[in-house]
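When time allows, look over one protein, given below as sequence and tokens. The question is which stretches look regular and which look disordered:
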Amino acid sequence: METISLSRKFARWANELTYDDLPAPVISKIKAFLLNGLTGAALGYCGAIGKEAVELTLEEEAKADGASILASGSKATRYGAAYANSELMHSSELWDSYRMLTHPGPVLIPAALACAELENRSGKELIVALAVGYEFMCRLCDDFIPSTAARGFRPSPIYSTLGGALACAKLLDLGEDGLVSAIALASNFASGLNEGPRVGGNEISIHEPQAARNAVFAGIIARTGHIKGAESSLEGEAGFYNAFTGSFKGELSYVFQGPKEVDLKTITQDLGETYKLLTVMFRIYPCAGFNQPVIELMTELKQKHKFHADDIDEIEVTMNWIETLYPSPKFPRESWTRPGIQTTHFYVAHVALNGGFPTVGGKTFGPTGNRLTEDTAVIDFLHKRVKITGDKDRPMFSPKISIKLKNGSEIFGQYPYSRLEWGFDDLVHRLNDCVTPLKQGKAGFQRLVDKIGKLEELQNIMPLIEITQEI
């Protein structure tokens, strides 16, 4: 009996997938991804880092008949536009997140937009391509992320390169064999190390932008037909999984929970019937994803029980153990594993004293700007009254908080991950707190919401791109 490779299974599914095959919740979720990404790009263009990326791109790769750079109205090569748009999204810190250590949006969306625009694809075709890319990436990285991080690789650009490449290849209409080649090429192009953030470097700021470039490049090279991708590029003895997880047999070095082994056959199980992309979450606070539910839960407990910081004897937060050793128990970022600024301790203390934590681009609580990390009361509180505990049996992104008050009473709360799986309407509500810096504020944001809400009606995606220049 012929064994079909993982690449072939994904390529066959992707090639045959149509808009009518997609369940309504998947279409809604794809629109949410786009809303988050395009809002992030518009916010990114309000800042110096985003504008600098656009200027650099135009100096090197301006192209009058190229792909559009969001918010700016300029055009560049499709590689350049993918890079600039990714940097705009990335610099805003308004990302989506899957399994803690990957951020597909700043890669898949810029890569897909560049190809959809230049190939004159419709709104429906863009939705299908993003569904293909997101689902491929989510399934590919699902249980393997901790093992990838333990090898010194940063999972986000590694896996996003492959998801972006499949989305681009779908928009380029490469057919099944071309999709297989695009996967193989992306497997060779994937890159990104964890050493920088571990020791104070900031090169991760271009990991996703470079991954977006590589994703587009994989699709374009596959379209030439000159490269025949290895059929076993993913699971082969010297393939993607062996390189980036240490095993081509599904043997894992670290896991969030459960056994240290995956049957590779399960990666494509129920493909097209169940969608892992529905579990992707969104970051609205400018900090690591695993701190998002901690901030949410601590804020809810503060609002519900109305305690004062002076009433608190100790706060204990119990989290998945890898979240306390970010990005990996093998290579933890030491500045984040002990009490201090930008740690879970800090965010818990800030909410305890100020009632919440600032959202990206919007609501503020307590001191603003640089003063946020100079709040001596928060620093003192986090060192004396906040305790973080790692638990190997605790689900990822599902913290438990116990607050002991000085009067002897205790307050408990848990935050299941499922509460972070926002759909389109949920995201619209949350992003309304983030759009103050936009030229038209909430009014401009609502125009973007309306346009994306009717994305399937667009014959091409230019109206979607153009609105980011107006809001």
